From TrEMBL:
Gene: aroA
Subunit structure: Monomer.
Record's protein name: 3-phosphoshikimate 1-carboxyvinyltransferase
Annotated source species: Salinirubellus salinus
Alphabetized CDD domains for the sequence: EPSP_synthase (cd01556)
Keyword tRNA processing: no
Keywords: Amino-acid biosynthesis, Aromatic amino acid biosynthesis, Cytoplasm, Transferase
GO molecular function, one term: 3-phosphoshikimate 1-carboxyvinyltransferase activity
Subcellular location: Cytoplasm
InterPro entries linked: Enolpyruvate_Tfrase_dom (IPR001986), Enolpyruvate_Tfrase_sf (IPR036968), EPSP_synthase (IPR006264), EPSP_synthase_CS (IPR023193), RNA3'P_cycl/enolpyr_Trfase_a/b (IPR013792)
Length: 434
């Protein structure tokens, strides 16, 4: 499916979708529990993969309405996952694969996990090594540290050493599974942890489900023998700042003079991607965050390039690159090598696709430089790379490009923001899909 975008103004009030990161963790935490009601979850392709995983391990997930919004009634497997009856297909969801690989290590038998072509190219080796060091079985069928994976247990806990610069999801997976092992898991990081706020999200969700995990000087640890269960049997998912970043960027670039963009559901949390507010402020954006009300208001602004490190906020790179292309001066995005190991190589993807739109871009292994002062964005046919974040960032850039921008692969927004194009249209964007 293609999205057709032309230069337009946006304005009005909208609401951020629920957080994908919190939804994944809440569904799996409810699976580790006897059960729980997950309120206001994100219902997307990725989170549905985690729902299927919980069911494959012996739980069940039923959708129902609660107070006028979606809720998931999860009947969990109470810390004792079964061996799935069939291969566990994680589709395009790296979070699902990594988090539930550790779940497989608790089962008394072998689980096979796979996914689509993109997911089968993503690194899993450090997590496989960790499972094996805990006494489980963990193999890549192709011997390259990538899916398909064969994983089995049951592991009882122990000490593991893993790199922190590949994926924070390895830490999350071990913490979530470690709480229901006999001995718990102590994690020592061999390198600096990238995307650290995502582990903060994990610790926050664990705490909400009655599980204690702590950071140490060397890494993290979680005691064994714990039980999952949220207070009152319910957990509510907060709004998603990763998805919100596209709405805020649209406001900063294209808000109507008489109608700023107001985004509701922006309550403070452990989400590192709330840094988009600071980035926009540093670029000169007229943005105000009422934290008590959970509302962010942003007006169209003259932006200037800045230097931004994304070691902890890799999902913001496409948004920041798009902003940089429309700003004065140069935007330098640093600490971004790990962003190459997402659904696609997002560093190269943004460099190549923004270049098609007339942007002046330089790509280094760990940096992306966008020379907005040398750029006049023009409409072009661009490839969303089957990556939801690339599709949305390029769509926002199309709001300020001369002529029509056609973004290929528009259907992939279903991964994290299924209503993205409807939301943009409701704000006045000239965007259609076909």
């Amino acid at each position: 499916m293609d999205a057709h975008v032309t230069r337009s103004r946006v304005g009005g009030t909208t609401r951020a979708p629920p957080s994908k990161s919190y939804t994944h963790r809440a569904i799996l935490a409810a699976g580790y529990a006897d059960g729980a009601l997950v309120r206001s979850p994100l219902d997307s392709a990725d989170t549905r993969a985690t729902m299927r995983a919980v069911e494959a391990y012996g739980g069940s997930v039923e959708r129902r309405e609660a107070d006028g919004s979606l809720a998931l009634d999860v009947d969990g497997f109470d810390g004792l996952p079964e061996v799935p009856d069939d291969v566990l297909d994680c589709a395009n969801s790296g979070t699902t694969m990594r988090l539930t690989t550790a779940t497989a290590a608790l089962a008394d038998g072998l689980t096979v996990l796979t996914g689509d072509a993109s997911l089968r190219s993503r690194p899993q080796g450090p997590l496989l090594d960790a499972v094996e060091s805990l006494g489980g079985r963990a193999e890549s069928t192709r011997g390259n540290g990538q899916a398909p994976l064969v994983v089995g247990g049951p592991v009882v806990g122990g000490h593991v050493e893993i790199p922190g610069d590949v994926s924070s999801q390895f830490v999350t997976a071990l913490l979530m599974a470690g709480a229901v092992t006999e001995a718990g898991i102590e994690i020592r990081l061999e390198t600096e942890l990238k995307s650290a706020p995502y582990v903060d999200i994990t610790v926050e969700v664990l705490d909400a489900f009655g599980v204690e995990a702590t950071g140490t000087d060397a890494g993290f640890e979680v005691a064994g023998g714990q039980s999952y269960g949220p207070a009152g049997g319910e957990y509510a998912v907060p709004g998603d700042f990763s998805s919100m970043s596209y709405l805020l960027a649209a406001g900063a670039l294209a808000a109507d003079d008489d109608a700023p963009v107001v985004v509701e559901g922006a309550h403070p949390s452990a989400q590192g991607d709330s840094a988009i507010v600071d980035v926009l402020e540093r670029m000169g954006g007229a943005i105000d965050w009422d934290r008590d009300a959970g509302e962010i208001t942003v007006e169209r602004s003259s932006l200037s390039g800045v230097e931004v490190g994304v070691a902890d906020t890799p999902d913001l790179l496409p948004t920041i690159a798009g902003l940089g292309a429309a700003a004065d001066g140069t935007t330098r995005i640093t600490d971004c090598e790990h962003v190459r190991y997402k659904e696609t190589d997002r560093v190269s993807a943004m460099a190549e696709e923004l270049t098609k739109m007339g942007a002046s871009v330089e790509e280094e292994r760990d940096e992306l430089l966008v020379h907005g002062g040398e750029t006049d964005l023009v409409g072009a046919r661009v490839d969303g790379r089957a990556d939801h974040r690339i599709v949305m960032a390029l769509t926002v850039a199309g709001l300020v490009a001369e002529g029509e921008t056609v973004v290929e692969g528009a259907e992939h927004v279903d991964v994290s923001f299924p209503d993205f194009f409807q939301t943009m249209a409701s704000l006045g964007a000239s965007v259609t899909t076909e």
